[in-house]
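Incident review: delayed structure delivery

Summary: a single-chain prediction request sat in the queue longer than the usual turnaround. Root cause was a stuck worker, restarted by the on-call engineer. No data loss occurred. The affected request and its eventual output are reproduced below so the record is complete for anyone auditing the incident later.

Affected input:
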Amino acid sequence: MRVVVTGSGGFIGSHLCYSLANAGHYVLALDDLSHGTDVFSSRSPKRIAFLECDVSKPGLVSVISDFKADAVCHLADASTASPAWDTGMFGRYSDALTNCIDASVQANVKKFVYASSADYLFGKQCDMPVKDTTRAKPANLFGMHKHNCECIVAHFVSNTRLRWAILRLPYVYGPNSRRLVKKARKGNCFIADSMKRRGRSVVYVPGDGNQTRDFLWIADAVSALEMALRDRRLLGTVNVGTEIETPISKVLAKIEEITQRKARFEYMYKKKDDVPRSQVNACTMRNHRWEPKTGIVRGLMNMAENGIEADFVGGDA
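Output delivered after worker restart:
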């Protein structure tokens, strides 16, 4: 399989590229490096070709066509790590998504996969766990953007032969989450920050620590995306998660227990539009024989044992 990955310099994108290449697939990694990092050029990995490219600009169709791509995974989007959320930024990302869809259709790509959010699409009024069929009720501007992008995919692709899937990912964590994100929103990488803290350095934590999240290990997120890329039957909008709801405060306490070091936590912002709870029902993915293999405790132990900048999923390809 020949796969184009946009946003390849980001946390999830870089891991996905290495995992695909390690599995024997050929990858064209695209990123304009405005927020991500070029982790490919210096390491010269096999089966991965990196191109610094703004996917919102004209000419993308020739890039995808020349590569003879079978599938496109679109990860060049706003994330919770973005230092600031504004309508202008979201507009640019929406334009990039539309351009990627149009280029994929013209290049006769067989499958288009978009990564959405399982956390911010649903507000306080939603019952947990959220299902694939749960109606989106965005909690904030970021959630509204993700919902808008889902609508763009469903609308523009529905009248074409392009098969598509939207995967709603929860909070994804793992090695390199801090190193691969430029200008990260303060408090967003609190797991990695807690692992690497030294001396009296402060670890910034979003909210008050009582929020819950469905924490998904990076390798499990990558395996879900890989399944969506290769499985012709996996279509539409589906949730990805562990179906386990864990308080942030419990995660911080477990990190202190594993590292045997006390930390100084500073709780950052208590916004009215924050999401207090997150728990994801991933029954559709399970029906396709996808299962998360790493729980939150095992994942934290992996980071403590191997380092927060350990190798990528799949190694050096």
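Verification: The radius of gyration is 19 Å.
Action items: add queue-age alerting; document worker restart procedure.
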